Structure formats: C-alpha cells, structure tokens
C-alpha cells in the first residue's frame, strides 16, 4: 500500500516536473524566436539607412570595426559556457552557497576581461586607422571605435554573469524580453538620428548608451528573485573546467569574425560591405536557430545532472529531428530568396556589386551546416565535455582561417565562403561522431536516415522550384516570390518527413490538441 502511494506520488512529481520543464522551454523558445525576428527586422532597417545616407564604405567601416571589437570576446576563453554548465547542478538542487561562489568566481574573471577591453580599445585606436585603407581620416576612425566600444565594456564588467545565471535556470525569456524592448527602442532612435543627418559616431554612441540599460535591468531582476552573496569567499575555485572551454570559444570567434577581418585586411571595404549585407540574412537565420534551441541546452544540462538519461535521449532525438527539418526549410528558402532580396535591398546603391549568386550559395551551405551541428554542440556543452572535444574546435578554426587567407586573394568573397564552409563541415561531422562514440546518445543509422530524408527533400525542392523566379526588382515582387517559394518548400518537406517520421508527426498533433483543449 505504502509502495503504491509512493509510486503514485512519484508519478505525479514526474508529471509536474515535465510540465514545468515544457512550460519554461516553451517560454524560452517563443521569446527567443520573437527576439530573433525583431533582431532580423531591425538588422535590415539600420544597415539600409546607413547604406542610403552614408554609403557602402561607411557601412563596411562600421562592420569592420564591429568585428575587431568582437575579437575581445576571444579573451573570454569560453568561460561563459563553462560557468553556465557549472550552474546546472546547484540550480537543480537549489544550493545557494555554491551558486554564489560560482557567480563570484565568474564575475571576477569577467571584470578582468573588461579591463583588457579597455587596453584593447586603446591599441585599436592607435593601430586600426593604419591597417585599413579608407578616406575618412584618423579622427573619424578613432571616434567611431570609442562610440562602439562602450556597451562591450558594460557587458563584461557586470552584465554577462547575471545573464548566464538566468539562462542556466531556464529563464532566458526574461533576458529575451529585455533585449527585444531595448532593441526596438534603439532602432527607432537611431533611425531618426540617421535621417536627421547626425554623424555615424553619434548614432553608434546612442546604441551603446541604450544597450547599457540591459545589464542594469537584469541585475535588478537577479537581486529580486535570487539570493546571491556577492561577497562570499572560497578556497577552491568552484568552476572546475574554467579553462577547458577555450577551444570551443576560439572556434566560435574564428567562425564569426574571420571572414570580415580577412576581407578588411586582404580585400576592400566594398567587399566587406557586400559581405555584411548578405551576412545580415544568414547571421539572422543562424541566430534564429541558436536562440530557438538555446533553451534546450539548459534542459539537457538539468537532465544530465539528475542522471535522467532516458528522458535526455528522448528530448535529444526529437530536437535533432526538428533541427534537420528546420534547416532544410529555412536554408532552402534563404538560398532561393537571398539574392533577389539583396538586389531589392540595395537597388539604389551603385558603388558596389551586390549581385553575387555563387557567394550566396556557398554562404547558405556553410551556415546550413553550422545549424546542423547545433544539436550535437548543445549536447556536448550541456554535459560539460569541454576538454574532451577541444581538438574538434581547434582543427575547425584552423581550417577556416587558413583556407580563407589562402583563397581570398584569388576568389575574394567566394574564397572566404569556401573557408567557412570547410571549417563547419569538419566540425559538424566530428561532433556527430563524438556524440555517437563517447556519449552513446545517437547512432549512425539515425544520422544516415536523417541525411537521406534531407537529401530527398532538397532534390525535390530544386526540381519543383527552379521555374519560380522574381518578375521585377521590387519589394512586392520579392514578397510574392517569398510566399510562393515558402509554400512549396514547406509542403515538400512536410510530405517527405510525414512519410519517414510518422511518430514525430503524431506527437506534434497530440501536443497541439492538448494546447487547444487548454
């Protein structure tokens, strides 16, 4: 009798835990998608205004400086990811003392990054104007660099550690809401400044000031909802793998920054501008995937910490299928629509050639591969296997960097796209191999079936959609094209996956019915 009661109570507790996990995952996913959609929209508005009012060279200069500033994240050395992984277990058992120790240790490290950023900006002010050939002059470059660097300092000085705590506790929707609101405010204010004739330096300084609001609000939320002793001391560093996330972090920085930096140093600012316009689209889709599935990492980390391996397998396999399905739909749509979009987007810009279809194809393939690796990367980060997988990331970064440097002189934009694709291809397949061999949460049979389904979908999309094209270079024609292409691709991918993954489709129908009944 007692055993039966305990079993019933245990079942109820499991149901309650599953409901809470699914609710938090849904909130994180929806808010992340909203934030990313707003990011993509805002990401089109301001660069378009900069291109129209300041020209391609200024747009290239802004993107070049942004990437050079982004390199400071190199000094983070992947500690952010390790801190988040370290927080999973104490958050799961609500060990406030251990949480405080991790927060204090991580914050101490990020403050050092903020100081390093100050030194780096000073060096950049001295060196950058001599590295990049442009017509604007020394003072113009210096003031732009300083204007853009302020928000970076605030992020590392006291903002990043609080964001990591929220993400690790599966409450990323809080951060997403704050980021979405401030992003919209920034876009509106900066657009007004641009059309009113203010300098690009004033526009970027305004962005920095508005983004300073983010860490202030997040700190207020942390202080209200968590008991963090920020003066706690410790003898042993609570972040055991602090230095084992280095390789993963270097790879991320190289993949994000190599193309623009290589083009800045070995090509022209016009090419940087062309790359940046295409990158608005592909990086938007990439970020869409990253934020949409970011909440899964915290969930998998909790399941791993609690040793709920069967539940971990279930979530992982379903996530992997959703990622593949989404990659085929979104990246096929992107490939079909990106060149027409860029032509419409830059139709009044005559100082550079933005019609580069081969480059667009290679870039889409490269980032589609990047998104496919997301499932395996999320799992590796969730279980904390940083040291074990560091060679994967180091080799991928080297492939990307070396290939881009070698190929950019002969092939320009296409060269850097090939380099990016090569690095991502190696990384994706090696990470998938690690998940099969070392974590035992996947199989070659599952992977082969998924790739086979993807390939069938892509072939059918190419055959059916090849006769669909844009009728004229206008927003209306592009919108009609986008609707036609999207409908065709969704139908094809839906039919193919319905044939090969019937159970997953049944699960989706059941979930939808539950939502409707509620």
Question: What would you note in describing this structure?
Answer:
The chain is mostly helical and 518 residues long. The protein is 83% helix and 0% strand. It is built from 19 helices and no strands. Helix 9 (246-266) packs antiparallel against helix 16 (413-437). Residues 5-9 have low confidence and may be disordered.
Question: Can you describe this structure in just a few lines?
Answer:
The protein has helices spanning 2-54, 56-70, 79-93, 96-131, 138-168, 172-195, 200-211, 213-225, 246-266, 269-292, 294-305, 309-345, 357-372, 374-383, 390-411, 413-437, 444-465, 475-500, 502-517. It is an all-alpha fold and 518 residues long. The model is unreliable at 5-9 (pLDDT under 50).
Mean pLDDT over all positions: 81
**How would you describe the oligomerization state of the chains in this entry?**
single chain
* Helicity, as a percent range: over 70%
Strand content: under 5%
Q: Outline the biggest β-sheet.
A: none
- Low-confidence region ranges: 5-9
Broad shape? globular
Number of helices: 19
Instruction: Report the structural category.
Output: mainly alpha
Order of helices and strands: HHHHHHHHHHHHHHHHHHH
Radius of gyration of CA atoms, rounded to a whole number: 24 Å
The number of distinct β-strands equals: 0
Tell me the span between the first and last alpha carbons. 34 Å
């Amino acid at each position: 009798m007692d055993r039966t009661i305990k079993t019933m109570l245990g079942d109820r507790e499991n149901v309650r835990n599953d409901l809470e996990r699914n609710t938090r995952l849904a909130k994180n996913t929806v808010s992340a998608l909203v934030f990313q959609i707003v990011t993509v929209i805002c990401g089109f508005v301001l660069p378009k205004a900069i291109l129209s009012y300041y020209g391609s060279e200024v747009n290239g200069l802004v993107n070049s400086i942004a990437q050079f500033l982004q390199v400071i994240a190199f000094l983070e050395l992947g500690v952010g990811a390790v801190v988040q992984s370290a927080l999973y277990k104490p958050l799961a058992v609500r060990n406030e003392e251990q949480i405080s120790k991790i927060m204090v240790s991580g914050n101490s490290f990020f403050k050092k990054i903020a100081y390093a950023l100050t030194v780096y900006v000073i060096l950049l002010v001295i060196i950058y104007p001599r590295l990049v050939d442009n017509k604007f002059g020394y003072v113009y470059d210096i003031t732009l660099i300083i204007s853009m660097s302020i928000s970076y300092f605030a992020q590392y000085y006291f903002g990043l550690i609080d964001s990591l705590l929220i993400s690790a506790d599966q409450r990323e929707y809080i951060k997403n809401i704050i980021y979405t609101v401030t992003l919209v405010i920034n876009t509106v204010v900066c657009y007004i400044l641009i059309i009113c004739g203010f300098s690009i330096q004033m526009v970027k300084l305004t962005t920095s000031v508005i983004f300073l609001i983010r860490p202030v609000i997040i700190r207020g939320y942390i202080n209200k909802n968590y008991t963090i002793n920020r003066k706690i001391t410790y003898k042993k560093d609570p972040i055991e793998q602090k230095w084992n996330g280095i390789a993963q972090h270097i790879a991320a920085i190289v993949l994000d920054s190599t193309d623009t930096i290589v083009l800045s140093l070995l090509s022209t600012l016009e090419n940087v501008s062309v790359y940046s316009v295409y990158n608005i689209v592909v990086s938007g889709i990439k970020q869409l995937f990253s934020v949409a599935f970011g909440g899964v990492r915290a969930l998998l980390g909790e399941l791993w910490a609690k040793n709920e391996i069967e539940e971990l397998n279930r979530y992982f396999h379903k996530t992997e299928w959703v990622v593949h399905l989404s990659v085929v739909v979104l990246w096929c749509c992107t490939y079909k629509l990106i060149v027409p979009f860029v032509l419409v987007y830059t139709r009044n810009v005559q100082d550079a050639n933005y019609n580069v279809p081969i480059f667009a194809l290679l870039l889409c393939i490269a980032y589609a591969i990047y998104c496919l690796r997301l499932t395996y990367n999320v799992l590796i980060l969730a279980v904390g296997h940083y040291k074990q997988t560091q060679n994967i990331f180091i080799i991928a970064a080297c492939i990307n960097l070396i290939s881009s440097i070698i190929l950019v002189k002969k092939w320009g934009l296409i060269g850097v796209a090939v380099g990016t694709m090569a690095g991502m291809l190696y990384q994706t397949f090696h990470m998938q191999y690690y998940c099969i061999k070392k974590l035992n949460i996947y199989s070659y049979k599952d992977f082969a079936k998924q790739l086979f389904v993807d390939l069938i979908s892509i072939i059918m999309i190419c055959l059916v959609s090849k006769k669909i094209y844009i009728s004229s270079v206008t927003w209306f024609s592009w919108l009609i094209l986008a609707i036609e292409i999207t409908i065709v691709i969704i139908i094809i991918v839906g039919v193919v996956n319905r044939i090969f993954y019937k159970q997953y489709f049944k699960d989706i129908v059941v979930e939808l019915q539950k939502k409707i009944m509620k």
